[in-house]
User: Fold this.
Amino acid sequence: MRKISPDYTDQANKPQNHKELSELYSSRGIRVRTYRDLVEKVAELCCWNKDYLIFFRGQTFDYKKKAGNSTFYPTIYRKDPLTENDRIYLFGKLREASRILQQKLKDLEIPGWKEVSRWEVIQWSLLQHYEVTQTPLIDVTQSLRVACSFAQHADGNDEAYIYVFGLPYLNSRITRSSEHELLYVRLLGIAPSIALRPHYQEGYLVGTEGITTDYSDKTELDLNNRLIAKFIIPNHPSFWDDGFAVVPEEALFPNNDKMKDLCTEIRINLEIRLTDADIGQFLNQWNKIEKMILDYLKKRHGEYSSNLYTSMRRLSEKEPQLKPILNDLNTWRKLRNRIVHDRDNVGINVSRLELNNLDALMSKLEKALR
Assistant:
């Protein structure tokens, strides 16, 4: 998604430490004592940034990169480092979850099931909002009160964080902006009627338009590109003054939400499916083997390459006794490459015998690298 430059210049009392983007990302945030104070500051930001529609996200922690900048990656991109194997595996899992969701809604004849089946991004939005599996989308809300309530519901922290983002103005329930390189979904107007949570939370999902497993720079997937401000609020009832009140947890997560029950069942079935002899299990096991080799070469010989074949070749040169096991591993590497380059077949099966053989090879490799 395209980076924006927030505007703080229309007023003399612009927020300190938020004059430049680099300072905004790395700063602790602006402290506010009460909800009314926060509303007034957000009102000023809305006035200064008229080109954007304002959204919020509340968190218990300010998650930062190694460089110290706040970061807001969709769940499917949060692992660091995120290998190609990881991406193929996670998107394979997402496709399987989407398939199960469509089938269940159809079998139960849930009103709106045809629309959900027609739009992949709606499937992803529901799966993300109900925490079934990782997706390329991230939750935000148009309700400042909901964002603050989310941030405060976790116990054990004296402070919480509220983030303000600027997005293009809506033109439909699914808004795609090639100019801003993003899309977002208004779940209130598109989710099946059995999904209560989006209505209580005023939920929206945001992602980068046109990007899934392939990207040139991971930072373009970070919602901090749209960050306008961040605030620190007290995690204490005193924050809610002058008649304002926190949204109860039972309202944010209603117990009679039928979509929640359905998605919980999907998550359980998805875990069972992916522990069977399918390609998801294979890629999961392969990720562990690849990491083992890359880490060993770096730790033992001070060399690092993100390319597995290069790492195997260098390791064979430095430790010739490992050549037989690395040759066996190279056969599996070729199978992995065929799967990766034929993405329509992510769901093809690998036999139980083959998986057992890979397990044995992994054990053998672990012993050899000790």
Notes: The two ends are 44 Å apart (CA to CA). Residues 129 and 193 are 15 Å apart (CA to CA).
